[in-house]
Amino acid sequence: MFKTVIEIGEINKCQSLLLENLKNNLYLSGKFNIGFPGGSWTETIQYNEDIWFLHHEIGGEEKSPRFWNGFGLVQELSSNKSNNIVVEINIPTNGINRKVAGFYAKNESGEIGLFHRGGLGGGRKGIGKQAFLSWSSYELTSVSTNSAKESAILVGLIESDDFTVKLHDFLINIANFKQLATTGEINEATFISDDELWERICTENPKRKSPKKTTTETVGYERSEFVKEYALRHANGKCQLCNNAGPFATKSGRNFLEVHHIDWLSKGGLDMPENVVGLCPNCHRKMHNINDAKDIKKLKSAVVILKSH
Ligand SMILES: [Zn+2]
Ligand SMILES: [Zn+2]
Q: What fold is seen in the domain 225-302?
Protein backbone atom coordinates (compact mmCIF):
# COMPACT_ATOMS: atom_id res chain seq x y z
CA MET A 1 0.00 0.00 0.00
CA PHE A 2 1.28 3.44 -0.87
CA LYS A 3 1.33 6.17 1.76
CA THR A 4 1.20 9.81 0.76
CA VAL A 5 4.36 11.76 1.40
CA ILE A 6 3.26 14.82 3.36
CA GLU A 7 6.24 16.09 5.32
CA ILE A 8 7.92 19.15 3.80
CA GLY A 9 11.47 17.76 3.86
CA GLU A 10 10.40 14.45 2.38
CA ILE A 11 8.39 16.06 -0.41
CA ASN A 12 11.46 18.15 -1.20
CA LYS A 13 13.55 15.01 -1.43
CA CYS A 14 11.04 13.31 -3.74
CA GLN A 15 10.95 16.34 -6.00
CA SER A 16 14.78 16.31 -6.18
CA LEU A 17 14.69 12.62 -7.13
CA LEU A 18 12.16 13.38 -9.86
CA LEU A 19 14.35 16.18 -11.20
CA GLU A 20 17.36 13.92 -11.12
CA ASN A 21 15.64 11.15 -13.08
CA LEU A 22 14.33 13.62 -15.63
CA LYS A 23 17.70 15.32 -15.93
CA ASN A 24 19.32 11.96 -16.74
CA ASN A 25 16.71 10.93 -19.28
CA LEU A 26 15.79 14.25 -20.88
CA TYR A 27 19.32 14.94 -21.96
CA LEU A 28 18.59 17.82 -24.35
CA SER A 29 17.65 21.36 -23.49
CA GLY A 30 16.59 24.40 -25.43
CA LYS A 31 14.51 27.56 -25.43
CA PHE A 32 10.95 27.28 -26.62
CA ASN A 33 7.80 29.32 -26.40
CA ILE A 34 5.46 27.63 -23.94
CA GLY A 35 1.77 28.44 -23.73
CA PHE A 36 0.03 28.93 -20.40
CA PRO A 37 -3.52 29.99 -19.67
CA GLY A 38 -3.27 33.75 -20.15
CA GLY A 39 -0.13 33.95 -22.23
CA SER A 40 3.05 32.36 -23.40
CA TRP A 41 6.66 32.70 -22.32
CA THR A 42 10.00 31.64 -23.65
CA GLU A 43 11.35 29.00 -21.33
CA THR A 44 14.30 26.64 -21.23
CA ILE A 45 12.94 23.11 -21.30
CA GLN A 46 14.56 19.70 -20.98
CA TYR A 47 13.61 17.03 -23.51
CA ASN A 48 14.40 13.78 -25.27
CA GLU A 49 12.77 12.33 -28.41
CA ASP A 50 9.48 11.76 -26.58
CA ILE A 51 8.74 14.25 -23.86
CA TRP A 52 9.67 17.69 -22.65
CA PHE A 53 9.64 19.05 -19.14
CA LEU A 54 9.57 22.40 -17.44
CA HIS A 55 9.44 23.08 -13.73
CA HIS A 56 9.12 25.98 -11.32
CA GLU A 57 8.69 26.28 -7.63
CA ILE A 58 5.68 28.40 -6.84
CA GLY A 59 6.43 29.90 -3.47
CA GLY A 60 4.77 30.46 -0.16
CA GLU A 61 3.24 33.82 -1.06
CA GLU A 62 0.79 31.91 -3.30
CA LYS A 63 -2.45 30.38 -2.04
CA SER A 64 -1.17 26.88 -2.78
CA PRO A 65 2.60 26.71 -2.74
CA ARG A 66 3.65 23.91 -5.07
CA PHE A 67 6.27 22.35 -7.24
CA TRP A 68 4.96 23.11 -10.69
CA ASN A 69 5.85 20.30 -13.13
CA GLY A 70 4.71 20.81 -16.73
CA PHE A 71 5.05 18.11 -19.39
CA GLY A 72 4.55 18.08 -23.14
CA LEU A 73 5.04 15.87 -26.19
CA VAL A 74 8.09 16.36 -28.38
CA GLN A 75 6.20 15.11 -31.47
CA GLU A 76 4.27 18.40 -31.29
CA LEU A 77 7.17 20.60 -30.21
CA SER A 78 7.91 23.43 -32.61
CA SER A 79 10.10 26.51 -32.56
CA ASN A 80 7.58 28.44 -34.68
CA LYS A 81 4.64 28.39 -32.35
CA SER A 82 3.60 28.46 -28.75
CA ASN A 83 3.77 24.92 -27.36
CA ASN A 84 1.00 23.61 -25.17
CA ILE A 85 1.59 21.77 -21.96
CA VAL A 86 -0.13 18.38 -22.13
CA VAL A 87 -0.40 17.97 -18.39
CA GLU A 88 0.77 19.61 -15.20
CA ILE A 89 1.61 17.31 -12.33
CA ASN A 90 1.98 19.79 -9.50
CA ILE A 91 2.87 18.78 -6.00
CA PRO A 92 2.01 20.77 -2.88
CA THR A 93 5.31 21.71 -1.22
CA ASN A 94 3.96 20.73 2.18
CA GLY A 95 1.13 18.57 3.52
CA ILE A 96 -1.94 17.68 1.50
CA ASN A 97 -3.76 19.86 -0.99
CA ARG A 98 -6.34 17.96 -3.04
CA LYS A 99 -6.84 20.96 -5.34
CA VAL A 100 -3.37 20.26 -6.69
CA ALA A 101 -3.41 17.24 -9.01
CA GLY A 102 -0.16 15.55 -8.07
CA PHE A 103 1.49 14.02 -5.04
CA TYR A 104 4.20 11.58 -4.11
CA ALA A 105 3.55 8.37 -2.18
CA LYS A 106 5.85 5.66 -0.88
CA ASN A 107 5.19 1.91 -0.60
CA GLU A 108 6.53 -0.67 1.89
CA SER A 109 9.65 -1.29 -0.20
CA GLY A 110 10.44 2.40 -0.16
CA GLU A 111 9.58 2.96 -3.83
CA ILE A 112 8.26 6.44 -4.54
CA GLY A 113 5.40 6.87 -6.96
CA LEU A 114 4.36 10.03 -8.77
CA PHE A 115 0.57 10.18 -8.66
CA HIS A 116 -2.05 12.17 -10.52
CA ARG A 117 -5.59 12.54 -9.18
CA GLY A 118 -7.01 12.30 -12.69
CA GLY A 119 -8.89 15.58 -13.04
CA LEU A 120 -8.07 16.65 -16.58
CA GLY A 121 -11.11 18.63 -17.50
CA GLY A 122 -9.49 22.01 -17.70
CA GLY A 123 -12.97 23.32 -17.03
CA ARG A 124 -14.66 21.29 -19.74
CA LYS A 125 -17.93 19.93 -18.45
CA GLY A 126 -17.91 16.21 -17.76
CA ILE A 127 -14.44 15.63 -19.15
CA GLY A 128 -12.95 14.59 -15.90
CA LYS A 129 -11.47 11.74 -14.01
CA GLN A 130 -14.22 9.16 -14.63
CA ALA A 131 -14.28 9.82 -18.35
CA PHE A 132 -10.51 9.54 -18.61
CA LEU A 133 -10.46 6.30 -16.62
CA SER A 134 -13.28 4.76 -18.65
CA TRP A 135 -11.62 5.68 -21.89
CA SER A 136 -8.02 4.83 -21.04
CA SER A 137 -6.72 1.59 -19.59
CA TYR A 138 -5.55 3.28 -16.41
CA GLU A 139 -6.67 1.93 -13.09
CA LEU A 140 -6.65 3.70 -9.81
CA THR A 141 -4.15 2.77 -7.12
CA SER A 142 -5.21 3.21 -3.51
CA VAL A 143 -3.13 5.41 -1.33
CA SER A 144 -3.49 6.03 2.37
CA THR A 145 -3.11 9.49 3.80
CA ASN A 146 -2.93 9.39 7.57
CA SER A 147 -6.16 7.54 8.35
CA ALA A 148 -8.01 8.43 5.14
CA LYS A 149 -7.80 6.59 1.83
CA GLU A 150 -7.95 7.91 -1.67
CA SER A 151 -7.21 6.54 -5.10
CA ALA A 152 -5.22 8.08 -7.89
CA ILE A 153 -3.34 7.21 -11.05
CA LEU A 154 0.20 5.96 -10.52
CA VAL A 155 2.14 7.66 -13.31
CA GLY A 156 5.35 5.80 -12.48
CA LEU A 157 8.01 5.11 -9.86
CA ILE A 158 10.31 8.12 -9.93
CA GLU A 159 13.53 6.19 -9.34
CA SER A 160 12.85 3.41 -11.84
CA ASP A 161 14.48 3.09 -15.24
CA ASP A 162 11.16 2.97 -17.07
CA PHE A 163 9.80 6.11 -15.42
CA THR A 164 10.09 8.34 -18.49
CA VAL A 165 8.57 5.59 -20.67
CA LYS A 166 5.57 5.39 -18.32
CA LEU A 167 5.35 9.17 -18.26
CA HIS A 168 5.37 9.25 -22.05
CA ASP A 169 2.46 6.74 -22.12
CA PHE A 170 0.55 8.91 -19.69
CA LEU A 171 1.10 12.02 -21.84
CA ILE A 172 0.05 10.23 -25.04
CA ASN A 173 -3.12 9.02 -23.35
CA ILE A 174 -3.99 12.47 -22.06
CA ALA A 175 -3.25 14.15 -25.38
CA ASN A 176 -5.44 11.67 -27.29
CA PHE A 177 -8.19 11.98 -24.72
CA LYS A 178 -8.16 15.79 -24.86
CA GLN A 179 -8.18 15.67 -28.65
CA LEU A 180 -11.32 13.49 -28.70
CA ALA A 181 -12.93 15.75 -26.12
CA THR A 182 -12.16 18.82 -28.21
CA THR A 183 -13.69 17.39 -31.36
CA GLY A 184 -16.75 16.35 -29.39
CA GLU A 185 -16.22 12.67 -30.12
CA ILE A 186 -16.34 12.01 -26.42
CA ASN A 187 -18.34 14.21 -24.11
CA GLU A 188 -20.25 14.32 -20.89
CA ALA A 189 -22.66 11.65 -22.10
CA THR A 190 -20.20 9.09 -23.45
CA PHE A 191 -19.21 7.17 -20.33
CA ILE A 192 -22.23 7.37 -18.04
CA SER A 193 -24.23 4.23 -17.20
CA ASP A 194 -27.47 3.34 -19.01
CA ASP A 195 -29.44 4.32 -15.91
CA GLU A 196 -27.75 7.66 -15.62
CA LEU A 197 -28.18 8.27 -19.34
CA TRP A 198 -31.94 7.69 -19.02
CA GLU A 199 -32.04 9.89 -15.92
CA ARG A 200 -30.26 12.73 -17.73
CA ILE A 201 -32.65 12.59 -20.67
CA CYS A 202 -35.66 12.74 -18.34
CA THR A 203 -34.34 15.59 -16.19
CA GLU A 204 -33.17 17.58 -19.20
CA ASN A 205 -36.62 17.58 -20.80
CA PRO A 206 -39.22 16.58 -18.16
CA LYS A 207 -42.20 17.97 -20.09
CA ARG A 208 -41.22 16.31 -23.39
CA LYS A 209 -41.13 19.64 -25.21
CA SER A 210 -40.28 19.78 -28.91
CA PRO A 211 -36.74 20.96 -29.57
CA LYS A 212 -36.07 24.66 -29.98
CA LYS A 213 -35.04 25.91 -33.38
CA THR A 214 -31.37 26.60 -33.87
CA THR A 215 -29.64 28.42 -36.66
CA THR A 216 -26.17 27.48 -37.70
CA GLU A 217 -24.01 29.31 -40.09
CA THR A 218 -22.22 26.94 -42.44
CA VAL A 219 -19.75 27.78 -45.15
CA GLY A 220 -20.40 25.97 -48.40
CA TYR A 221 -18.56 25.79 -51.70
CA GLU A 222 -19.92 26.11 -55.19
CA ARG A 223 -19.72 22.83 -57.04
CA SER A 224 -20.09 22.15 -60.69
CA GLU A 225 -23.05 20.02 -61.84
CA PHE A 226 -20.79 18.76 -64.62
CA VAL A 227 -18.03 17.61 -62.30
CA LYS A 228 -20.63 15.88 -60.14
CA GLU A 229 -22.08 14.12 -63.18
CA TYR A 230 -18.57 13.12 -64.23
CA ALA A 231 -17.92 11.46 -60.86
CA LEU A 232 -21.26 9.63 -60.81
CA ARG A 233 -20.92 8.47 -64.36
CA HIS A 234 -17.48 6.98 -63.73
CA ALA A 235 -18.49 5.39 -60.44
CA ASN A 236 -21.23 3.73 -62.49
CA GLY A 237 -23.49 2.94 -59.54
CA LYS A 238 -20.73 1.36 -57.41
CA CYS A 239 -18.99 2.92 -54.45
CA GLN A 240 -15.36 3.58 -55.35
CA LEU A 241 -14.18 2.72 -51.85
CA CYS A 242 -16.02 -0.50 -50.88
CA ASN A 243 -17.11 -1.46 -54.43
CA ASN A 244 -20.67 -2.18 -53.30
CA ALA A 245 -23.60 -0.96 -55.36
CA GLY A 246 -25.24 2.23 -54.13
CA PRO A 247 -27.73 1.28 -51.36
CA PHE A 248 -30.94 2.06 -53.26
CA ALA A 249 -32.18 3.20 -56.65
CA THR A 250 -33.18 6.85 -56.77
CA LYS A 251 -36.44 7.99 -58.38
CA SER A 252 -34.52 8.56 -61.59
CA GLY A 253 -33.37 4.92 -61.48
CA ARG A 254 -29.72 5.51 -60.71
CA ASN A 255 -27.97 3.78 -57.79
CA PHE A 256 -27.64 6.37 -55.07
CA LEU A 257 -24.07 7.58 -54.48
CA GLU A 258 -22.62 10.76 -53.06
CA VAL A 259 -19.86 12.77 -54.65
CA HIS A 260 -16.79 13.23 -52.48
CA HIS A 261 -13.78 15.48 -52.97
CA ILE A 262 -10.65 13.49 -52.05
CA ASP A 263 -8.77 16.66 -51.13
CA TRP A 264 -11.49 18.46 -49.24
CA LEU A 265 -12.79 21.72 -50.67
CA SER A 266 -12.52 23.19 -47.19
CA LYS A 267 -8.80 22.50 -47.28
CA GLY A 268 -8.22 23.96 -50.71
CA GLY A 269 -9.07 20.87 -52.80
CA LEU A 270 -10.33 21.47 -56.34
CA ASP A 271 -13.74 20.78 -57.82
CA MET A 272 -12.22 19.01 -60.82
CA PRO A 273 -12.48 15.48 -62.25
CA GLU A 274 -9.18 14.30 -60.73
CA ASN A 275 -10.43 15.09 -57.23
CA VAL A 276 -13.94 13.56 -57.22
CA VAL A 277 -15.25 10.07 -56.58
CA GLY A 278 -18.66 8.49 -56.04
CA LEU A 279 -19.12 6.92 -52.61
CA CYS A 280 -21.89 5.07 -50.80
CA PRO A 281 -23.16 7.08 -47.81
CA ASN A 282 -21.32 4.84 -45.32
CA CYS A 283 -17.97 5.23 -47.00
CA HIS A 284 -18.59 8.95 -47.46
CA ARG A 285 -19.17 9.32 -43.72
CA LYS A 286 -16.10 7.22 -43.07
CA MET A 287 -13.93 9.54 -45.16
CA HIS A 288 -15.21 12.61 -43.35
CA ASN A 289 -14.84 10.96 -39.96
CA ILE A 290 -11.40 9.39 -40.16
CA ASN A 291 -10.03 10.17 -43.65
CA ASP A 292 -7.71 7.17 -43.42
CA ALA A 293 -4.52 7.43 -45.49
CA LYS A 294 -5.02 3.97 -47.09
CA ASP A 295 -8.53 4.90 -48.18
CA ILE A 296 -7.30 8.18 -49.64
CA LYS A 297 -4.71 6.25 -51.64
CA LYS A 298 -7.34 3.83 -52.91
CA LEU A 299 -9.64 6.66 -53.99
CA LYS A 300 -6.83 8.50 -55.75
CA SER A 301 -6.09 5.40 -57.78
CA ALA A 302 -9.79 4.89 -58.55
CA VAL A 303 -10.16 8.30 -60.17
CA VAL A 304 -10.63 8.11 -63.92
CA ILE A 305 -9.13 10.86 -66.03
CA LEU A 306 -10.19 10.75 -69.65
CA LYS A 307 -8.07 13.53 -71.04
CA SER A 308 -5.62 15.98 -69.67
CA HIS A 309 -6.93 19.51 -69.55
ZN1 LIG B 1 -18.80 2.31 -49.88
ZN1 LIG C 1 -17.17 14.34 -49.11
A: DNA Binding (I), subunit A (1.10.30)
